[in-house]
Amino acid sequence: xxxxxxxxxxxxxxxxxxxxxxxxxxxxxxxxxxxxxxxxxxxxxxxxxxxxxxxxxxxxxxxxxxxxxxxxxxxxxxxxxxxxxxxxxxxxxxxxxxxxxxxxxxxxxxxxxxxxxxxxxxxxxxxxxxxxxxxxxxxxxxxxxxxxxxxxxxxxxxxxxxxxxxxxxxxxxxxxxxxxxxxxxxxxxxxxxxxxxxxxxxxxxxxxxxxxxxxxxxxxxxxxxxxxxxxxxxxxxxxxxxxxxxxxxxxxxxxxxxxxxxxxxxxxxxxxxxxxxxxxxxxxxxxxxxxxxxxxxxxxxxxxxxxxxxxxxxxxxxxxxxxxxxxxxxxxxxxxxxxxxxxxxxxxxxxxxxxxxxxxxxxxxxxxxxxxxxxxxxxxxxxxxxxxxxxxxxxxxxxxxxxxxxxxxxxxxxxxxxxxxxxxxxxxxxxxxxxxxxxxxxxxxxxxxxxxxxxxxxxxxxxxxxxxxxxxxxxxxxxxxxxxxxxxxxxxxxxxxxxxxxxxxxxxxxxxxxxxxxxxxxxxxxxxxxxxxxxxxxxxxxxxxxxxxxxxxxxxxxxxxxxxxxxxxxxxxxxxxxxxxxxxxxxxxxxxxxxxxxxxxxxxxxxxxxxxxxxxxxxxxxxxxxxxxxxxxxxxxxxxxxxxxxxxxxx
Length: 651
Ligand SMILES: [Ca+2]
Ligand SMILES: [Ca+2]
Ligand SMILES: [Ca+2]
Ligand SMILES: [Ca+2]
Ligand SMILES: [Zn+2]
Fold this sequence. Notes:
The chain is built from 15 helices and 24 strands. By secondary structure, the protein is an alpha+beta fold. Among the domains are: about 1-65; about 505-650, Sandwich (Immunoglobulin-like), CATH 2.60.40. Helix 1 packs antiparallel against helix 2. The longest helix has about 30 residues, at about 1-35. The protein starts with a helix and ends with a strand. The relative contact order is 0.10. The structure holds calcium ion (4 copies) and zinc ion (ZN). One calcium ion (CA) binds near residues 222, 226, 230, 292 and 293.
């Protein structure tokens, strides 16, 4: 592109120069011509010819451009996607499924779509696997990132964030060398809609922006023997559950003076004009309570097997960890993929980058917290207005949620983004912490959304309260970005998660050095490297022995390495197959050190052919030195459950 634009610029300069010369010649001609006698012949019309020449060149360029009209691409996005998708709106289950199928069909070499289970309501739970599926490297031999959305189904934009990520990786693979590198190096597992039954309910049944938060399996919340018998009622028929107020001269609330749709509490010593009487609904079963037993309830993010607590301690825990099928199948998937070394669990709202622990009694390893800190600090730059926090310190305590389980029991760096920040309304820090101040929301609604986010107060007849008015924020605003901010929310969150993925461990054999000791005795020194921020095994992984140690092994290479074989990503099958029946090659001993001079080496006493390394830290190397019998070339391989594989053959 730069070559083309230089050419264009130089052509432009030549053209301008020609015009300037033509103008000068013209002036000179007039100056000389004026005093000349009338009968003398005129000079040839050089200026006209020059102008024609310039015009011809302009036309030529225009014709060439017309013949090859490359769209003018805005940077950072595909100019002409194979699967066009609008990113300023929400998608329901059927629409999302169609987009996923189109992407899998358009990009079979990198996008694979599978349903891991059917839900209670008969929907597929889709998981998309994105990697270079044609490089011959087994999926489990590459480090993987798990990315999910919709564990809380009312938190709608997270599905679009994950869907956008799938679309972006697929569409940009052939455009962006950087995206191609990330996709080639890693595996991405993406679950855009973990709770489709409830998302459908949120979209198409009367709900507010907080519901449903769990799954749709009926639960008797109030213990009256009836299941989900008294949920919301859409009294004004607008599809949104808002709130109810009754006029009351001794009331507790009054309209805000500047934004009269907003109800504010009367100050001490001040009389209100209304009384608030709860969320839109009636007493459907005549038990004296309103909306006491709606859809569900269990919380799909309180069912994971780390510090789980039963219902009487924490609402939403259901029977026992993983006691809901839709949660269990995702847990099984994660456990079946030990190559996962990073994960992102998207939620709304508040503008937070959250790490565990979620309970004050829980503890994360210090060294691992330092890794989280480094990643999230970059995230705060990429997501303006988002704050990095530890959940139990700065939010609220909870038990049995997924990100802490992922860290403590799967041993990877798991983060949770609470997407959409109060900061995003006006780009100011005074808009509230986590939840935006109501006045900010109403000001934004008035000036940027033209009153589209609020259902205005309407009088209806209520069977229990008589005349009431219903009104308030609609279900599609307050936690979610508005249409015009959706794509930015998707892109920035995706970009941070890709940064996280790019910092997952990646092992390689950096070099192999061979020196003859005497006769058939050789010293082979290999440098193995992890050139990313996250260690191959976190401190928690080493402490609990979650994944096996990394293994650096040596064997005699069968033959001279063919061209291109010397550096082979993800190879190491040779290392796995164990020692060959080769009597002339023997590994006598091995040393491991952090330094090239082996000042205090670790002596490998057992099985020196396959040296175990507890962890390969972020941006660090290990030196492994073998004493072997038998001449090379040698193949050195490194195998890491979470950091991938590599092997190299000595010269
Ligand atoms: Ca009930
Ligand atoms: Ca219920
Ligand atoms: Ca009831
Ligand atoms: Ca009731
Ligand atoms: Zn949530």
